[in-house]
Amino acid sequence: MRALANWATPWGFPVCYLGWAFLFWLPLVVSGEPVWSFPAVVFLIVGGMSPLLAGLSLLWLTQGEAGYRDLRRRLLETGRIGVRWGVVLVVFYPAFNLTGAAVALALGVSSSPLEVISPQRLFDPAALALLVLVAVVVPVIEEIGLRGYWFDQLQARWRAFTSSLVLGVVWAAWHVPLVFMTGYYEGTTFQPELWWWLPSIVLTAIVGTWLYNNTHRSVLALIAFHFAGNLTGETMGFSAELYPAVHLGTALVAAAVVVIWSPGSLRGWDTPRPVVDHARPTRRR
User: How far is it, in rounded angstroms, from Cα 248 to Cα 241?
Assistant: First the structure.
C-alpha cells in the first residue's frame, strides 16, 4: 500500500478527496432531500470528512509516524506564525469586509453593504451550531488534508503560484455539490453561484499559500485564516447585492501578493519556497 501511495503522489489525494465526498454527496443532490434532515445529514457529514480522511490516511501510508509528528508540530507550534503574521491572520478578513463596505458606500452601490448577525441568531441553538460547524470544524477538517498533507507535494514540483492554482481548482471542485444540495445554505448569509464563487476559491488559495509559506508551513495559521474568513462571513458578511463584484477585491489582493512576493515562492523575490525532503518527487525506474 505504501508503494502504491507513493507512486500515486501527488494525484492520489485529489482522487480520494473528491471520490469519497462525491460518493456520499451526489446521492443527496440527486434525491433533493433537505440536507439537514435525517438521514441526509449523515451523508453530508461523512462525505465532508473526505479531506481529513484522505490526508491522514495517505500521510500514514507515505510518511508513517514521522509524518504525523511533523503535522502535529505544524498544528501546535504558534512560534511558526509570529506576531506580524498573527496580526495578518486576525485582521485580514474583517479589514477586507469593512474596506469593501466602505467602497460600496462611497460609490453608492449599496446603502447596507454588510449583513451583521442578529442577536436572535446567536441565541438560536440550531443556528449557533451551524455557525460553530462552519467557522470552527470545517477549517480544521479541510486544512489538515489540503495543507497538512497535499500542498507540500505540489510545491515540491511547481512554483508556489502554480501549486496554489492546482490546489484551488481541486478545492473549488469539492464545493460544487454543496451548491446543489437542498437547504445547505439555509440559515447562512451566503448564497453562492458557481460562476463567481469557484474562481474566488482559487484566488483565496493563492492568499492562503502566501500565509502558509511565510509561517513556515504552519497548518495552524491556515486553520486560523480559514476560521477568520468563515466567522467574518457569517457575522458581518457582504449583502447579496455586492456579489460577485466584491471578489474583484480578492483578485486585487491575490495579484498584489503574486507581484510583490513573487510567483515562485510568495515569500519574496529572493526567498525560496519551503520544500521538505519527503515531498520532493523521486525518479521512477
Answer: 14
